[in-house]
Specification:
mainly alpha, three-stranded antiparallel sheet, two-stranded antiparallel sheet, 21 helices, globular
Length: 471
């Protein structure tokens, strides 16, 4: 492996903690070196996000916003944001605190939870945990509105330990039973009115003292008249919570199975910082392990990484936002979301339907992203970008010719696509791409008539290559 340059490190940083390493983004973030790129990515509050689309502008002619429109709104945000770490973390926490619109099939609470991850995701974990635990979508998702004195419901208490804080094997059934009692009376209400139905537009956390068990409880070996806030504090203070989060963040952003010594080192950093996630991510980004050979191109792209990165590299999100901004107030904006719906549908077919995680544990990730069915969909992504529209198969029909400005032959065309899509293939496979491009060009110069056919032929091979599945 050739020596890793500062530019290589910056590109690696953007693949993992951003939303793809387009040449423009690598140039922008890497201008003053890797350490500066880290700080620029982490301190995104100083950056204009570049996304100003109010969800209420996407109402249907019937006057509502469907959940699939909320999904498209988030996908568009992923495609255009100038704060890539903020959105990547929002996606991570959505997986960690997995809540599905399959059950919470109401837009306002799902939007509120999404914004919660965006607002608190880089701060102190205990604050995020408290907000999520009192979030109406989460309370409804895990049935805590039915958790009342004398009839405790253990769903939330179990998941807050097993998934959100400690991890499997670091608590007892008694801990769950006692914690469930502490969370009695935690529910949601709209306009002050209690409901066990779905949370609606104005739903907010509501504590019902008459339904709360205020008796003595023992959780994590500590006894007291604990309430839900006390239990969250007890859980956040456990060393195992920091360790569990370090492993999960590392495996999401870097590679599987970090060494125990590395985990303990980062856990110490996290605990010393009061579980400040910004401090932990900075330590990860600046670690030698993160920029090691083992880490480079070592994790499977999830479908959002796969699809959103290519849209950002092509500038599709910007084209959609420009079209939306050019329309007058009151115009129906939903047709403008066509390209975004193509991406959302493709990601769903690849196994990642955001806002609809498969269960409380989120997506399996890793090698589970790759199967014979999902690889077919990854190959089809080339058709979605450059192919012709067919019945039942919408396509972007992106005009490929401008991508090849300066290229005079098949080899130059391939080089342009490899550069554009941040692809690293061995020479033998690059030669296969050149042969595919030559066949598609059919001996003619690169022009409007054959550019898309050549782009399709090359990207079908590229998107199906084992190397392209990793970031």
């Amino acid at each position: 492996m050739p020596p890793v340059t500062d530019r290589d490190r910056t590109a690696h940083l953007l693949r993992r903690f951003g939303l793809g390493a387009s040449q423009a983004e690598v140039d922008f973030y890497g201008e003053k070196g890797y350490a500066n790129a880290v700080e620029h990515l982490l301190n995104f509050e100083a950056v204009d996000e570049g996304f100003d689309l109010d969800l209420q502008r996407l109402v249907t002619p019937q006057g509502n916003v469907p959940l699939r429109v909320l999904q498209a709104w988030w996908v568009l945000r992923l495609c255009v944001t100038q704060r890539p770490l903020q959105e990547k973390l929002t996606l991570f926490w959505h997986d960690h605190f997995a809540t599905s619109a399959q059950k919470v099939d109401v837009v306002p609470p799902m939007l509120a939870q999404n914004e919660l991850f965006r607002t608190y995701g880089l701060g102190r974990f205990p604050i995020l945990l408290e907000h999520v635990s009192k979030d109406p979508a989460m309370l409804y998702w895990l049935d805590n509105q039915f958790n009342v004195k004398g009839k405790p419901n253990e769903n939330f208490a179990r998941e807050v330990m097993e998934l959100f804080t400690l991890g499997i094997g670091h608590y007892t059934e008694l801990d769950i039973q006692e914690a469930a009692r502490a969370f009695t009376g935690w529910t949601f209400a709209a306009g002050g009115r209690r409901t066990t139905e779905k949370p609606r537009r104005r739903a907010e956390y509501k504590f019902r003292p008459e339904q709360h068990d205020d008796g003595r409880k023992s959780v994590m070996g500590q006894a007291g008249n604990w309430n839900g806030d006390d239990v969250l504090r007890l859980l956040a203070d456990q060393p195992q919570t920091a360790r569990h989060l370090v492993i999960k963040l590392w495996e999401w952003f870097v590679y599987p199975q970090p060494a125990p010594a590395l985990v303990e080192r980062l856990t110490a950093v996290y605990r010393d910082a009061g579980l400040d996630t910004r401090a932990l991510l900075r330590a990860i980004m600046l670690s030698s392990e993160f920029v090691s050979e083992r880490a480079m191109r070592a994790i499977y792209k999830n479908p959002i990484d796969f699809c959103v990165a290519t849209y950002r590299q092509l500038g599709v999100g910007k084209l959609v936002m420009d079209r939306i901004r050019a329309q007058e107030e009151g115009q129906n904006l939903l047709p403008s979301l066509g390209p975004i719906n193509i991406l959302a549908t493709s990601a769903r077919s690849m196994g990642m339907d955001i806002l609809y995680p498969p269960d409380v544990a989120g997506w399996d990730g890793g090698a589970a992203w790759i199967s014979s069915a999902t690889m077919v969909e990854r190959l089809k992504w080339a058709e979605r970008l450059f192919g012709a529209r067919r019945a039942g198969q919408p396509a972007l029909q992106f005009a490929a010719l401008p991508l090849f400005d300066g290229a005079t032959d098949a080899k130059g065309l391939v080089a342009a696509l490899l550069d554009l899509f941040d692809a690293n293939l061995p020479d033998a496979k690059q030669r296969q791409l050149v042969k595919a491009a030559m066949r598609a060009l059919a001996g003619e110069p690169i022009g409007a008539r054959n550019a898309n056919a050549a782009a399709l032929a090359v990207t079908q091979l590229l998107f199906g290559s084992p190397e392209f599945q990793f970031c």
